[in-house]
Amino acid sequence: MARWQLRAHRLSIPKVPWGRCGAPPGRASLAPPPPRSALTPPPRLPPRPRCAAAGIVSTLTCVVAAIAGAHFGHVLRASDDHVERMVQWGSASLFGVVAGLVLHFSGLPLNTNLYSLSFLLLTCGVSGLLLCAAYIAMDMPRSLPPAAAERLRAALQPFRWLGLNAITMYLLAEGGCVQWLLNCFYISADRNKAAGDREQTLAWYLWPGGAWGGDDADSRTAASHSAAVLIWNFVYIAIWMVVARGMHKRRIYIKL
């Protein structure tokens, strides 16, 4: 019954609790609204980033390469005999080259991006053989004929120039300083905003992966096996050898 009918018959009006569930029909609830957490579900947290397995594999192989370099340094400090040093370095280097090539042709290819095991063994072996050649030319001149030792020493002089300013050459060649500087110069006067200002810079035209090396994943994969990119790398190294020679000629050595 409605309330006016109860009053007309002089009946008692029941006390109905006012609230969200007990409010009379047609009347708004005077109770405070429920908390927001009761009406809406809690916000979903963003998914955690998954760990890249390729990064772990390449990190482990880099650690092994550092251990191999420490072994070569330990042999240099532990032994004073030239022959014993050459035997230790040469045997380890030949093992690395042979093992890397065997793994490469057995189904584990050389992968510079993943830093595969075959690439690790081959690069460590070749580096060890180069160290043996440099050691023979620089520290064992009496083991070779004078003319041969002089020619070998002259051929290895560019590597000596790079080694005298190793930190400076690494920062300039691989630190991105030159690319950053060349990004300040534009070839075209009007900049294409749709394609990006970087595509108009001098570095974009000179470095592979820009105007002539491709910018997507397929182009980068194809460019890594391109003869033009390989020639560009040799020219790039030769330029820094010339810079290192100029610093050595002027007795400029930057050390920490």
Walk me through the structure.
Helix content is 59%, strand content 0%. The protein is mainly α. The protein has 2 domains: 92 residues; 101 residues, no CATH class. Helix 4 packs antiparallel against helix 5, helix 5 crosses helix 6 and helix 7 packs across helix 12. The radius of gyration is 36 Å and the shape is globular.
Task: Give a quick rundown of the structure.
With 256 residues, the protein is mostly helical.
Looking at this protein, list some descriptive labels:
256 residues, mainly alpha, globular, 2 domains
Low-pLDDT segments, ≥5 res: 18-23, 215-221
The global form is globular
Q: In angstroms, what separates the terminal alpha carbons?
A: 96 Å
- Radius of gyration over all CA atoms, rounded: 36 Å
The averaged pLDDT comes out at 76
Number of helices in the DSSP assignment: 12
User: Helix/strand-derived class?
Assistant: mainly alpha
Largest sheet: none
Strand content: under 5%
Estimate percent helicity. 55-70%
H/E series = HHHHHHHHHHHH
Integer tally of domains:
2
The quaternary structure here is single chain
* Count of β-strands: 0
Walk me through the topology:
Blueprint: H1 3-8, H2 36-39, H3 53-78, H4 82-105, H5 117-139, H6 146-155, H7 157-164, H8 166-174, H9 177-182, H10 202-206, H11 217-223, H12 227-249
Helix pairs in contact: 3-5, 4-5, 5-6, 7-12
